[in-house]
Amino acid sequence: MPPATPNQTIGPYWHLIEHPEWADLTRFGANGEAITISGRVLDGDGDAVADAAVEIWQADPPADDRFPGFGRARCDTEGRFHFRTLKPGPVAGRGNAWQAPHLALALHARGILKPLFSRLYFAGDPRNETDPLLASIADSARRATLLADEVAPAHWHLDIRLQGAGETVFLEL
How far apart are CA 159 and CA 142, in angstroms? Predict the structure, then answer.
């Protein structure tokens, strides 16, 4: 009989959450405005989702040898995650419409067979007013679920709620 394998909620790469360095996108000496991103993953009752993994991608600054543009963080027992990255700038989107600075998010967890995709925008950025994705969300309370707050200089916080009151806007890709 073959040996038992670990639960592979996010495929054969689940082991990468055992490497906290993946949450530091500046670890190779990236140049730019370094920021911290933190948050919690919460279920519909507001309880922590302790076995989740959060991924971020960003198109700006462009990935290179010193900046991977991708990171993955494991949630702790309180559902908390954190990243160290560079503050993104605006990027061209569909039809060359400018998108406000943002990070793409993917959430993996037990019971979620396909990743949930969302975005993190930076509250107070005036470019949020003209961002095509944010503008497509008519309900301001729903739109606010994508806006991270600056809780300290260069430290942005966004909670991800899977369902219920304040549910995060998730995207169909």
Answer: 13
pLDDT in tens, 135-171: 999 999 999 999 999 999 999 999 999 999 999 999 9
CB atoms near residue 159 (< 10 Å):
17
Per-residue confidence (pLDDT) for residue 17, from 0 to 100: 60
Q: Is the pLDDT of residue 114 over 80?
A: yes
Contact 57, 85 (CB under 8 A): no
Structural domains of the chain, with CATH:
11-161 (2.60.130.10)
Q: Which two tokens stand for residue 67?
A: 């900046």
Phi first, then psi: what are they for 94, rounded to 5°?
-55, 130
Q: HEC string of the chain? A: CCCCCCCCCCHHHHHHHHCHHHHECCCCCCCCCEEEEEEEEECCCCCECCCCEEEEECCCCCCECCECCEEEEECCCCCEEEEEEECCCCEECHHHCEECCEEEEEEECCCCCCCEEEEEEECCCHHHHHCHHHHCCCCHHHHHHHEEEEEECCEEECCEECCCCCCCCCECC
Q: What's the rounded mean pLDDT across residues 84-107? A: 94
155-157 and 80-86 strand pairing:
unpaired
